[in-house]
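HUMAN: Now follow token order:
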Amino acid sequence: SSPFPYDQPHHLDSLSLIYENCALFSELCLRFPDITESLYKTISLMDFTEVIKKSIKFCSEREEVFNRENDNGKLLHLAMQELRLSPKDPNYKNPYRNTLSKTPEPKSTKKKERKKIPRGPYISKPRTEL
């Protein structure tokens, strides 16, 4: 691989955008796994999933930024497992995944009793004030 051209700032900006967006998507993927998974399946027909896969793999190859010793590397490694881009560790568990059943519990159907208002003609209270 050739050395990175540090004298060209637009390359550095592009690289930093890839790193930042990949870290952001990894964070969202871990924090909101149900939403991310449904979107990931819905948009799978487009090139979106391929771009995500390539960018995460690109970032995971950069040991100077995303090594497994720092938080960024751990985040990326967990996101790769969540998106099934790498095999899951046996002890992997996403703490943000909703482990409860998907069906909501039925609410009680007990209705509040209404006060009966008498119907028909009635005499109003006399007004004594002027």
Observations:
- The two ends are 98 Å apart (CA to CA).
- Residues 9-31 form the longest helix (23 residues).
- DSSP finds four helices and no strands in the chain.
- Helices lie at 9-31, 33-42, 48-60, 71-82.
